[in-house]
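Table S4 entry, F-box domain-containing protein.
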Amino acid sequence: MAGFNDLPSEIIDLIFDELCGTFKSLWNDCSATNEEQGIFQTCLPVSTDFRHRILSRFCSCVSLAFGPDVTPLREVVSQPLNSRLGGIGRYTKHFYLEAYSRISDPESEILLDSQDLPVILDGLHGDYFGVKELSLHIYNYGDNMAWTDIPVDFRCALRSLLLSPRLTRLNIENVAFPSEIIFSGTHLKNLSIQRCQGVLAADSPSNKIDVVPSILLALPLPTLRELQTDHSHGCDLDLLPTPMLEKLEVYKELKSVGLHSAKTWRVIGLSASSLTEIYISHTGAVVSPPKNFNLGVVHNLRAFEYSRHSAHRHSFDSSGDPTPVILFHLFNVTEPMEYLKKIKINFDLRGRSINELFLRRTIADSNWVLLDGVLIGPYFLRLCHFEISVTMEATIEDPSDFRHRALSHATNDRFESSFSRIMAQESIVFLQEVKVLGPCWSSDDDA
């Protein structure tokens, strides 16, 4: 062992990177043999240094998504009895948990009221260690789960973990809670809160009001750097205290629905002085920004992306689509956007007769031409990338009457005509991609 310890630290790290990387690949593919597992396990008791180097790599990311028995993880995440070495919780930096309020498949789903889960959460942080990122996905069969409906032991363990000074990234899905519960006393920098994928509603969930302990109201709030949300979780992020958003750099919105889109503009306004990247995604009816608001207040903006989606289970209504008007309004600024380099616009649409409506209304809107003129003006001298992406999935009763190639080419031609001045700029890369999908085609059918 003396010879091994004499090796440079960089070489030792490479050896363990290779060992753990190979074994993790075999483990993930369920192809590790008993002999290979034995080789890995025999390295652990060689020395404290060996154990630390292996576990810090192999256990840095832990995902708990399949059940029902999570007792083995409980037994190893905390410090084992009669051991001074500690559990794997001190080596875990990223923890992912999927749990169900009630289970329909006892063989594969983890029940939220499992007595093992609070112990596991407690084992992920301590005085000298703690996870950096927590992802919590709670499935409640179609609705957000109220904070007070979560089992009390799990709730207490989660709240304790949230107060860890080392936890800076939180991704939480399908839980409705007062902002003080999730924010007060935490050290979060990156936050993602939303509904579970595939669960979409036009209105906020109707959960009972949670009582916030008065002691939480006195705790300091974190200063976020990155926020990702769909505004459907019962927490009014646009009403957060200004200090939480005044240093926000990246704002990502995930398919904000209906009237929730009004919150978009308020969040951007609260963090306008610090934002560098904005990604907006609107679904269904959209609330336009206030007349006195545009992106001119976001002085440090470097990248902007706007995505437009059909409403859940509904066709895209081009007759009332305000996208061109909204974008022209946002970029009709009166002062230079000195750092803005990239703009991307996405359409992801479904509907009947979308070939007629989309071409006649949305694409032919005169505001595209106005936007083209604004973006080549003196306020966007750093703009070097402009991109439009359109994916249309048409529901056609008689596919033989639907000329998807003609629609694809016509859409391209309309956009090229609307943005002729941007296309003529050698300093700007203009990209567009149009995919037309139907009942008998895939995206590979179109040029």
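The longest helix spans residues 9-28.
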